[in-house]
Design brief:
heterodimer, A: 67 residues, mainly alpha, 3 helices, 58% helix, elongated, B: 516 residues, Cytochrome C Oxidase, Chain A, two-stranded antiparallel ribbon, 16 helices, 2 strands, 1% strand
């Protein structure tokens, strides 16, 4: 039930659970609990990181020419 | 005996939502520190409007003196007073409250708060009356009124006492067995923040005391190079307290908003420990173009030590969203890759603030920061608008936004009031985050075209020489101005919501505090 001016975590605190561990892990992956979406988001982050980093080295090579 | 037990019991209340026993001294100190953080934010955001409308070259509102004055006010009020008052509140929450314990030496805790408040007021008075136009860094030979330095020393000593009391509260909780097993991860993160705070505040004392004696005319001016080396141990490390506290807040908000799980306690704790070991050395990236330090020293501190601290942020950047995803999947959102994200509570300002904080901190603040921290690349970014573009993405869109998000939970849980102007509160994180994306991105690109940071007038009006910038710069500075105004307006909304809720808000309805 939602209340005006009350965040849902206060009016309905989610049950605090532990991540599947040890022998439960394979079972968890089978049940679709593995964080597959986060792996994709992290991949996007890494690509952005690599592109920006190397663009800056390229920019440096224009400003600071060797030879 | 019965009287003593009754008196002790009266100092606690049990939170109906979390079941935590909340010590009344801790609760009062959390409230007061939060109120002073907001007051500091008021000063900072007034200055922000002036700065944005001056750096927007087409508007160029202020005279030079007032521009530099407000730049000082903005930096000190936001980066020191707002953030550290809020962090003191986080320490009282993560220590005594989360551990069901009490505040040791409550009189000392009150004295520390008063010392911090007096220090902050002294500094604000000096800045607003034009006696400390020295910018946030106050590099010698710029010299402020002695009371400016004294105020900062008072504030730092008060904060150091609070950090000491936080450590003492851990000992008391352990001795009185108020919790079982290891401390919670949020408390562990706060411990990391507190250790970094000790390093930071000792650097502050080491440099501000001789600067104060110089301002009094008792000693010679500190060597500028030594000043810069030690000052950045304060100036940058203080922002690393923020990072550790912000990550702790991410874990807290993840648990409160969607029941996020901690994927691996050991890995998350190890990442916090990496912050403690290596993050202070990252201060060296401020000195990468200083001639007084060798390349070996610079490269070790920035391209080795700093990367280990960055590794810690990347670990948290994975474990926090992954914990949210697993938590959501445990609740049945298992369809496809992103059902857990689509069906997340986007209307909960605590959740939206946390997610936007993670994204902007990582994608804009993190990527730009690591890139500029490379010695060779730093030479093309140093002292340009790219630098404030980076740190507004980390400290403002990262830390401040996370703190705004947790405020929407502090109001009902600690102040026991409903959040006022609820429809506005639900959009406030989007307004602030969106404004900051425009602001930081346009600053970063304008800096790439060579626009200097801090500078009052990039057109050098009346100078005997002429500086030409790429035509794109005017457009970028215009977008920066619009983004800055949107973000500053969102800060005003946040202040209005927080102040109204705390002082004039309706009490929490009893029915609204039942757990799942």
């Amino acid at each position: 039930m939602a209340f005006y001016g009350v965040p849902q975590g206060v009016s309905k605190l989610p049950r605090q659970e532990h991540a599947p561990g040890g022998g439960e892990k394979e079972h968890a992956e089978h049940k679709g609990l593995a964080p597959r979406g986060t792996f994709i988001l992290v991949g996007v982050f890494l690509v952005a990181f690599i592109v920006y980093y190397f663009v800056n080295w390229k920019l440096l090579s224009f400003v600071w020419q060797v030879g | 005996m019965n009287t003593t037990v009754a008196a002790l019991a009266a100092r606690f209340r049990t939170c109906p939502t979390t079941g935590l026993r909340v010590n009344s001294t801790a609760e009062h100190l959390i409230r007061l520190n939060a109120v002073f953080a907001i007051l500091a934010m008021v000063a900072g955001v007034i200055a922000a409007f002036g700065l944005v409308l001056t750096r927007w070259q087409a508007v160029h509102l202020l005279e030079a003196v007032w521009y530099y004055r407000l730049l000082t006010v903005h930096g000190v009020s936001m980066l020191i007073f707002f953030i550290i008052f809020f962090e003191m509140a986080v320490l009282y929450f993560a220590g005594p409250v989360l551990l069901n314990s009490r505040v040791p030496m409550p009189k000392l805790a009150w004295a520390a708060f008063i010392l911090m408040a007096v220090g902050a007021v002294m500094v604000e008075v000096q800045m607003w009356t034009g006696k400390a136009d020295v910018l946030f860094t106050s590099y010698p030979p710029l010299r402020a009124h002695p009371n400016y330095y004294l105020g900062i020393i008072f504030f730092a000593v008060g904060a150091l006492v609070v950090v000491g009391l936080f450590f003492a509260s851990l000992v008391v909780a352990k001795r009185e067995e108020t919790y079982g097993g290891s401390v919670p991860l949020v408390t562990y993160g706060a411990i990391a923040a507190a250790v970094i705070a000790v390093i930071t505040l000792l650097h502050g004392a080491a440099i501000y005391v001789p600067t104060w004696t110089w301002a009094m005319g008792w000693t010679a001016m500190p060597d500028p190079q030594v000043y810069r080396l030690i000052w950045w141990g304060l100036g940058h490390s203080s922002q690393q307290i923020n990072v550790a506290a912000m990550v702790a807040v991410w874990y807290l908000l993840g648990a409160l908003t969607v029941g996020a799980v901690v994927l691996n306690e050991k890995i998350s704790r190890a990442a916090f420990f990496l912050y403690v070991l290596f993050i202070s050395m990252a201060s060296a990236h401020h000195l990468l173009v200083d001639p007084g330090f060798g390349s070996g020293w610079k490269i070790w501190n920035t391209s080795y030590a700093m990367y280990l601290a960055v590794l810690a942020s990347m670990i948290h950047g994975f474990t926090v969203p992954a914990g949210i995803e697993v938590g959501q999947r445990l609740r049945g959102f298992t369809k496809g890759m992103f059902e857990w994200l689509r069906k997340a509570p986007w209307g909960d300002p605590g959740f939206s603030a946390m997610i936007l904080s993670i994204i902007i901190f990582g994608f804009i603040g993190g990527i730009t920061g690591v890139t500029f921290g490379t010695e060779q690349i730093n030479i093309i970014a140093h002292n340009t608008l790219r630098v404030p573009g980076h740190f507004h993405a980390t400290v403002v869109a990262g830390t401040a936004l996370a703190f705004m998000g947790v405020t929407y939970y502090v109001i009902p849980l600690v102040f026991q009031k409903q959040v006022a102007f609820w429809p506005l509160a639900r959009i406030q994180p989007y307004l602030f985050g969106g404004g900051m994306v425009l602001f930081t991105m346009s600053m970063t690109f304008a800096g790439t075209f060579g626009v200097p940071r801090r500078h009052y007038d990039i057109s050098f009006t009346g100078a005997p020489f002429d500086i030409q910038y790429n035509a794109a710069v005017d457009l970028l500075l215009g977008i920066m101005g619009i983004g800055g105004l949107i973000a500053a307006t969102a800060v005003v909304l946040y202040i209005l919501i927080a102040v109204w809720s705390v002082f004039f808000g309706k009490p929490m309805p009893q029915a609204a505090t039942a757990g799942e």
